[in-house]
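Weekend entry, working from home. Most of the wet-lab plans are on hold until the incubator is repaired, so I used the time to fold the two sequences that have been sitting in the queue since the last round of cloning. Logging both here for the record. First:
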Amino acid sequence: MNSRSTVKWSYPYTLILIGFMAVVLSCSKSKEAPDDNQGLPITVPANKNADTNLDNSLFLKLVNDVRTKGCDCKQPDGGVTKMPPVPILAWSNDLATIAKTHADDMEKKNYFDHTDTEGRNPGQRMTAGGDLWSAYAENIAKGQQTENEAFNSWINSDHGHCQNIMSANIKEMGVARSAGNGNYWTQLFGTRR
């Protein structure tokens, strides 16, 4: 199974893009993370109209559960980055719609990349979709069959997916699975200006 990640922040004079490819390893709860975050509320989508081809509430819960606990994210060199607990994310139907378009495009045109066939990166697709962002990140995956499989491939990655999920700079998330065979997944994170 394949998965990739990218993250981009927009600053007044700086634009940074980091692209990652994933190798599935493992992520474990940080020893520094408190155990008493179990009672924190989880925000669920108020509007499930975005056609995502997956269980939006389940995916948001999977992400927010790990965000409230913290996580040890693996690094390519075998090291670990301790990610502390961070605020939960809100579901964004706008991001889910943009993610769905990309997942469908990858499946229909048989490619696997953060750059679409029109040469646009995730931030450019978000801008074209009307999202005025100050930060974004994207994870993509191919071959996973369930929400849990896709989430686990990203959270257990050693190339940035886990860090994208745990980023304190991100406020919203949308995820979608391709409509055809459902083999392509896009997870899009954003923070609006």
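Second, folded right after the first finished:
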Amino acid sequence: MRRVILILAACATLGLVGGGAIVGLGLYNVSAQAGHWPGVGWVLHTTFRNSVRLRAPDMSKAPDLSDPDLVALGAGHYASACAPCHAEPGGERTATMRAMEPAPPRIEEAVAHWQPNHLHWIVENGAKMTGMPPWPAEDRGDEVWAVVAYLEAVRVGTAPALPDPGVGGYCATCHGPVGGEVPRLDIQTPGYLERAMRDYATGARPSGIMAHAVSLLEDDEMVDVARYLSGEVRDTPPPPAGDARPGGEDLARRGTRDVPACVACHGPGPRLDGRDRDRFPSLAGQHEAFLATQLTLWRDGVRTGSALMTAAARDLTDEQIDMLASWYSRQPPEEVEDD
């Protein structure tokens, strides 16, 4: 027994010495041209597949992935953030992308063998030892479903054409033609939109989609973009079908000694002193799904930075959030005054 222990100890010592030499002396060739040693690629890929399937979220958390607005939002983000590596459907990667080790697969190949919840985990978390980054904002798995909706459309062959991701019109690929989770900006002041973009840029307001979008802008461009988006003339979207859910107006107009009513800061109608529209966004006429998502983020502590909003939202139930979003989305938008 003692001899066996000595042999095992000697093997362990040799392993440590050999490993130290490989690391300390740089004996392992890290060149991407050299590739992995035989078998390493299989181990990594097998580990990756099993790890994703173990950790993927339950599909019960997924929204309607066939929602055209959700697919369009995912397409807009994919066009600028993902297509440079994975190419657009039917397209080809650049020679530089194909030379990566491992090379990012064409998008049709990348989605072929994964379920939507698996894709959600990959997009949200990225993958070590590859060029696949995690989602740019933590705790925003709700946004990731938009990309998954687009990828699922790619998988089944119904994906829409990608919008032009050029910087000049990039914001307009989502704001305006896409509803649902994408907010209307023409009902906000340029000052509010500029503040929001700067918050997205610093991470004060978490959004992976918007963090990527504002990273395409120079700091001094935000003023012009905010003015353009606020003053952009576009067809007024039709109001949501059906009547507002009962109770929403009462909630919006009800305040407490510590927390003023929603309308006191966000309208419609006169605000409290100091509640200007450059700091407090107008909510009348905003998209219902967007309002519900933002209230949920405030309630759950994902959005921070305003003690007043945190106090106003922390005790809201899902039903109350839906009531408020339903009522506000059906109110006539307030006019934006020119500078």
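Plan for Monday: verify the second prediction. The chain has a mean pLDDT of 91.
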